[in-house]
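User: Hello! My lab partner asked me to get a predicted holo structure for this protein. The small molecule is zinc ion, SMILES included with the sequence. Please write out the structure tokens.
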Amino acid sequence: MFFDTHCHIDLFDDPIKIAQSYENANASCVMATMMPSHYQMALPYLQPFKAIMPALGMHPLRAHECKKEIKMFIDHARSSDYIGEIGLDFSAEGKKTKQEQITILKTILPYLRNGKFVTVHSRNAHEELACLLDDYHVGPVCFHYFIGGTQAAIELTAKGHYFSVNGNMLRNKHRYLIDAVHRDNILVESDGPFLTKQPLTMIGHIYDELGNIWHTDKHVTEEIISLNFGRCRTIFS
Ligand SMILES: [Zn+2]
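Assistant: Hello! Below are the structure tokens for the protein in complex with zinc ion.
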């Protein structure tokens, strides 16, 4: 069974068709969202799809709008087992809302301690994000599309965190991540529709590639990812 741990199903032209395609392929998908209101809106539509796990999101690049939905986030955080995407973005695009992003994260992190799968965005901000996760005892989490370098990846692995790898990373210099990180800390993501309009095709390709790199057959590769996904849950410490 395939696991896609980061796909924005609600941003596709026909979200129901995409949800159905996971179901038909016997694949599971964590549906990342941008804002609590998006999560809330999607919930009733996704209920029939056992394969889709809607995640409660608060995207750092939407900090300005998300600020108004903090209460909605906290209300849903009690019942949602899947969180994301949340995080920090201090790239040129995100820098202007840096303080807002930090304030939001500090407000929501205390609600994410118990048994949740959390997918995080960390562009140009993984050090600050890792510190906040430590401060609020939130982890392990899954760093999605991590491009922070080998040394940082090793340090985050030592803290128990996971990394979800997408098809773009396999084709560019960020492929290093797979060698730098133990296979027990690797997950798989499509990051659709941003990176692909055909998430399942990409996911299948990543599983094949991981099998080549790890010298594991299809069955063993699927087993490793499945166990990793099961373990990647926040523990209160
Ligand atoms: Zn995303």
